[in-house]
UniProtKB/TrEMBL annotation:
This protein's encoding gene: LOC107008142
Alphabetically ordered keywords of this record: Metal-binding, Oxidoreductase, Zinc
Swiss-Prot/TrEMBL cofactor(s): Zn(2+)
Ranges for domain Enoyl reductase (ER): 20-348
Species of origin: Solanum pennellii
Family assignment from sequence similarity: Belongs to the zinc-containing alcohol dehydrogenase family.
Database matches in SMART domains: PKS_ER
Superkingdom of the source species: Eukaryota
Entry protein name: Probable cinnamyl alcohol dehydrogenase 1
Length: 357
């Protein structure tokens, strides 16, 4: 790829096996190529899919693995062909660091659906070396897969927007649910769900949070600004809400029945799946047929949409609700995330952490 200087060592926290326990790990960064940006990592969000990866839940994990794909950092070096960034810029890097650039999705600027996309960790880059994620001090990334954090946006607040935020924004944008006056449902109030409430409200929607228990009612209504709250086991309230929603964003990352939520949709309503689930989901076909309803999915967002959601959130003053931790707390943070014990996104202060201990 060519280089500006010799390869550098990076220090990250990596899993070595499916226990998913992270500990310090030193590895070599690839050389900064002509079209590359080297980023000093400041912050990195923790996503539920990081846990899937480090624990080999999908049977595709390779070790050692440095996870983390909600990366915010400072540009410290640029290649000679880099035109979008300069040293000192505060930038973001999400889940993708490569694509083929020639297939139909790539030509349509929806590179997240490229069959040859390259993940920012647990993948192999074009140079044959494994990719490593954002729980580390440095990354080297092609400029196409880097976005500028808008001036005035707190960098730690920007981190969850690079996955959780754009994951919600993309389907609302694509399916035409970005107009005001719609009625939407957010199923599950975790990292993605809480961004779903905030972004949908900023778009002018009436938002109903749907949860398995009543314990998050006050948070949803009073703190996040949701308009209504449904407990999925309350059959009476669920029946009263039947045929009332234009869409439901389903963020639940574990197996769950779909029928109760399909009944909430209007004719032509959409149930949009976002949780990564490694077991089959089931539904009876009349639940879809008798309302011309759709069960669909959406995967993160394009680079264009990532830039859009950052500017949308800046303009609408939408912020993520985070709990800041240091890297030495990351294993505890993952345990808590599995128990849904975070409001609502962990962000690791990477630059403020001692990575070698």
């Amino acid at each position: 790829m060519g280089s500006l200087e010799v390869e550098k060592k990076a220090i990250g926290w990596a899993a070595r096996d499916p226990s998913g326990i992270l500990s310090p790990y030193t590895y070599t960064l690839r050389n900064t190529g002509p079209d590359d940006v080297q980023v000093k990592i400041l912050y990195c969000g923790l996503c539920h899919s990081d846990i899937h990866q480090v624990k080999n839940d999908l049977g595709m994990s390779n070790y050692p693995m440095v996870p983390g794909h909600e990366v915010v950092g400072e540009v410290v070096e640029v290649g000679p062909e880099v035109s979008k960034f300069k040293v000192g810029d505060i930038v973001g890097v999400g889940l993708l660091v490569g694509c083929c650039k020639t297939c139909r999705p790539c030509k349509q600027d929806i590179e997240q659906y490229c069959a040859k996309k390259i993940w920012n960790c647990n993948d192999v880059y074009t140079d044959g070396k494994p990719t490593q994620g954002g729980f580390a001090n440095f990354m080297v990334v092609e400029q196409k897969f880097v976005v500028k954090i808008p001036d005035g946006m707190a960098p730690e607040q920007a981190a969850p927007l690079l996955c959780a935020g754009v994951t919600v924004y993309s389907p609302l944008n694509h399916f035409g649910f970005n107009q005001s006056g719609l009625r939407g449902g957010i199923l599950g109030l975790g990292g993605v769900g809480h961004m779903g409430v905030k972004i949908a409200k900023a778009m002018g929607h009436h938002v109903t949070v749907i949860s398995s228990s009543d314990k998050k009612r006050q948070e949803a209504l009073d703190h996040l600004g949701a308009d209504d709250y449904l407990v999925s086991s309350d059959n009476e309230k669920m029946q009263e809400a039947a045929d009332s929603l234009d869409y439901i964003i389903d963020t639940v990352p574990v197996n769950h029945p779909l029928e109760p939520y399909l009944s909430l949709l209007k004719v032509d309503g959409k149930l949009i799946l976002m949780g990564v689930i490694n077991t089959p989901l089931q539904f009876v076909s009349p639940m879809v047929m008798l309302g011309r309803k759709s069960i669909t999915g959406s995967f993160i967002g394009s680079m264009k949409e990532t830039e859009e959601v950052l500017h949308f959130c800046k303009e609408k003053v939408v912020t993520s609700q985070i709990e800041m931790v240091k890297m030495d707390y990351i294993n505890t943070a993952m345990e808590r995330l599995e128990k849904n014990d975070v409001r609502y996104r962990f962000v690791v202060d990477v630059a403020g952490s001692k990575l070698d201990q």
